[in-house]
Amino acid sequence: MAAIQQPSGTVTLVFTDIEGSTRLLDSLGPENYRGALGDHQRVVREAFGGHGGYEVDTAGDGFFYAFPTATGAAHAVGEVLSALDGAIRIRVGLHTGEPIVEDGKYVGLDVHRAARIMAAAHGGQALLSRTTRDLLDDSFAIRDLGEHRLKDLSAPQRLFQLGTGEFPRPRTLHLTNLPVPATEFLGRDQELADVVAQLQNGVRLLTLTGPGGTGKTRLALQAAAEAADGFAEGVWWVPLAALRDPGLVLRHAAQTLDIVEQPDRPLEDLMTEMLHGKRMLLLLDNAEHLLPAAADAIAVLRDLDGPKVVVTSRERLQLSGEHVYPVPQLSPPEGLDLFEARAGAIDPAFQADASVEELCRRLDNLPLAIELAAARTAVLQPQQILERLGSRLDLLKGARDADPRQQTLRATIEWSYDLLSPEERELCIRFGVFAGGATVEAVEDVCGADLETLASLVDKSLLRHDRDRFSMLETIREYGTEQLDAAEREDVVERHGAFYEGFAAGAESGLRGPAGASWLDLVERELPNLRAAMERTLERGRAGRALRIATGIGRFWEARSAATEGRSWLAQAFAAGPADRSPHAAGCLWGGRLAFFQGDFVAAEQSFAEAARSALAAGEVFLEAVSSAFLVWIALESGNPAAGREPLERSRALLAQLTDQWERSEVMLGLCGGPSEDRGQDSRREEEVVALKRELGDVIAVSDSLNNVGWDALVTGDFDRAAAYLEEALAIARELRDTFRMSLALGNLGHVAALRERYAEALELNREVLLLCIRRGDLRGGVETLLSLAATLAGLGRDELSVTLDAIHRRLGADGGMIDDPMLLGRLEPLVSLARTRLGPERVAQLEAEIGAPSLELALELLDAT
């Protein structure tokens, strides 16, 4: 038989591996294992060779094959999986691409991709990339497994399974926010294994240290991805480079994990409670500029019973229990490989020579220094780079007061900077004003840059570009900002603040329209810049700008579980000095809304009253009308309806003066919470608001108005109508990733389920709402949910838990000055009363006395414990 020729061009690559080979060796014994392994090798080689497969390599217990067609590869894999029905089970990955052929081997990203796909499979399972799946016809049984992130940290991609077998979820990154690096991970095999081993063992706090540019972040990201299987609750990246206040470290970590501050609880206590027992990994990246103050916050995370913490920093944290891993420079072969890869991306024909080896050596094999030098191969030969950079390295290495690697990197950055044109240099030093990167529009406006200059800095590795954002490594940013004189620094800070004040104004308008979901995402992405703008503005005594930014993104604070942070920025702006009456009124209105929907009625009433007074003085009819409508809500939910009569009449009178349809719709939406004398008229008014909000395209408020109509139908007993409206409100909220409106719709659906006597469904819905309310710091919604849970548990016959949760509900409501809606209470209370009757007064009193300090967290703990 003729030898199989190595395929080239479009090739389907197949990797196989035996699942649990070490365990098999132990169970079968050496002799039996050798026999089983030999049978496995024979089956694979016969089937793969029979379909034109070319054996590229064997590694351990697995194979690497290449096929000229995807069809041949799939048939071969199918035969092998059918034949191997004994002790040995293999996992298989197939990917079709155009790998580079080099000395009988294949190299390039396609090879790594195929290997990663195999690593995601389970024993007996074959996974396919989309490119392979698209080349197979309908004769193959294929299952679409959806999008997954592989552990090479690439962008999400679709995976498919060959065959119809049932397997657990692929071993991919599931719960994670790890960023997608711009380039592939090269070398560092030993360091990667060392760090992963520490994460898999008993280390609770691991700090990767080393000068800037040594690759700490890239190594930490890759190690976190590799170790992800050991962290069922996810692997989470907490970037710290954009922070300037060490006091924000814990808050930033909490927001990454969707844990929301509560006004009356220390964040440390909340995180301790929420993360107890959670098997997760937290990667705090770039901590050095926040030390030593940030060490206290990191110590809180270290002491959590569950998560493990990895930190990257130029210096150790000096905390007890800290394990330090100094990240070395690359080995000479790794440095050479990195230079070749980066230069090869510029010129595929690039060939390294002795001057490249010497250059990498002179650069101490520092990844960032090598990348900066390799970027210059577009215009300079390696020998020329070596000659021009060498003297500068020699000069700086004469110093004795710094890490030699840091001196090398600084010399390389300085050399790269000196080679820039005046336009490039100006952009490089001004870009440091941004926190967390920037869009092209922001860079053009703030830095006065053009696209050509931006592209040039990306080509020179001084800026990075990922989809629609530009970013800069912290080491380069620090060098650039050092070059700014005081006047230029003030100018760029002012331009940055003005740009993001304008962005916030655009967000205020955008969040009112059909692109509300996109604007919520945009604000979330720009939050580091918005924070920086507010912080710098407050430092300079410009309270008005900070107030306008915080107010402009009010709907974001409300929707994305950030009410406490929003209230904090508003409070800082108010404390910094007086503002014009209109911005002051708008800020008070948002301060009131955020406080109200957290259940802080005292603060909310004060804010709404101040908003109404300022709006009246400024002649802002709309702001006064909305603030007055919210005062009506406060009065009703505080059990003092008489206090709401005057603001109700005032709001209705002001509504008649408004001609702008969006403003009218907002006031009408607010008035839907007012006292009712005619439920039919209320229902018609609420339907009118829904229609008006739909017409205006205000997608966020459409969810609000649908929820109001659903509520009205719920309390009047029209459960089918209520469910229809509430399901639509929930669908919109989920699309928006709006946890506030999700909790509203889910809570009301929980009421509907309880009143329909669908108690199992009601229990599931109300538990989800309770968890959301805890995460949001929403006492108002949580108290109402506890009433529904108490009724649901009574319906299920779980009387003791029903009575206990009802007691927590009543005590929390009384402490917060809240009363239950009479119509809802009238429908749910009879169930709880039955539970009390069945238990008897003595047992009820005993259960209530055992509660201790009531809280939503205690209620969730009791619910989950039974």
Largest sheet: 7 strands, mixed
Give the helix level as a range of percent.
55-70%
The total count of helices amounts to: 39
Assembly of the depicted chains:
single chain
Strand content: 5-15%
Question: What's the shape?
Answer: globular
CATH homologous superfamily label of the domain at 11-162: Nucleotide cyclase, GGDEF domain
Give unreliable regions as ranges: 396-401
- Give the averaged pLDDT, no decimals: 90
Tell me the CATH architecture of the domain at 11-162.
2-Layer Sandwich
- Looking at CATH, which topology of the domain at 11-162 would you report? Alpha-Beta Plaits
Strand order within the widest beta sheet: 2-3-1-4-7-9-8
Q: Given this structure, which CATH class of the domain at 11-162 is correct?
A: Alpha Beta
Helix vs. strand class: alpha/beta
Radius of gyration: 31 Å
Number of strands: 17
First and last CA, distance: 69 Å
Protein described:
There is one protein chain. The protein has 866 residues and is of the alpha/beta class. Among the domains are: 11-162, Nucleotide cyclase, GGDEF domain (Alpha-Beta Plaits), CATH 3.30.70.1230; 189-326, P-loop containing nucleotide triphosphate hydrolases (Rossmann fold); 332-418; 422-484, Arc Repressor Mutant, subunit A, CATH 1.10.10; 738-865, Serine Threonine Protein Phosphatase 5, Tetratricopeptide repeat, CATH 1.25.40. It contains 39 helices and 17 strands. The strands form four sheets. Strands 2-3-1-4-7-9-8 form a seven-stranded mixed beta sheet. The chain has a five-stranded parallel beta sheet with strand order 11-12-13-10-14, sandwiched between helices.
